[in-house]
């Protein structure tokens, strides 16, 4: 990584202080409630400017669309800032949707979670003989809610494509049982999520010897 400077919130010189809108003095971002409403009831904010929210264009588009529907269309639907699929497009892609393990523990308590994980070997890596224990998949399940999947993570080829598909299932309330009942497409990378049976708490070996 040569440079990763992120974005600055340019909010200090646009007159927010004149109408009383509060900002986070540390980063210039705007705190809002779950309906994108600032501390001034008639002022809303969306997108990268939001304090503690994801800086992703599709998130801003979705939030703006839903805000307009609430304000002018009689809707009550709010933007889901948790189950947002996203990918880091590094040479070996990383994709995720839902909670990271650390935040899930903070939110639900470690005793209420079950984490399933495994290493896997993509088919296309067999001929060039690449390391068969480089790719990784993990799901985080809420034991108190029928083992509902609250976090999905994958490190491997085409992680963005894999994550996008599972994101819709997570929005529909995907559970570990439903994953286990799903027939995998062999030999795809996404198939690994239908065959995961080793929990992190068990301490069992997750290395693989083949695709």
UniProtKB/TrEMBL annotation:
Entry similarity comment: Belongs to the class-I pyridine nucleotide-disulfide oxidoreductase family.
Coiled coil residues, start to end: none
Lineage top rank: taxon: Eukaryota
GO molecular function, one term: flavin adenine dinucleotide binding
Cofactors, names only: FAD
GO biological process: cell redox homeostasis; cellular response to oxidative stress; glutathione metabolic process
Gene giving rise to this polypeptide: Txnrd3
Protein name, as recorded: TRXR3 reductase
UniProt xrefs under PANTHER family: GLUTATHIONE REDUCTASE, THIOREDOXIN-DISULFIDE REDUCTASE
Entry-linked InterPro entries: FAD/NAD-bd_sf, FAD/NAD-binding_dom, FAD/NAD-linked_Rdtase_dimer_sf, GSHR/TRXR-like, Pyr_nucl-diS_OxRdtase_dimer
Domain Pyridine nucleotide-disulphide oxidoreductase dimerisation: 84-196
Record keywords, A-Z: Disulfide bond, FAD, Flavoprotein, NADP, Oxidoreductase, Redox-active center
GO cellular component assignments: cytosol; mitochondrion
Organism: Ploceus nigricollis
Residues in FAD/NAD(P)-binding domain copies: 1-64
Pfam families: Pyr_redox_2, Pyr_redox_dim
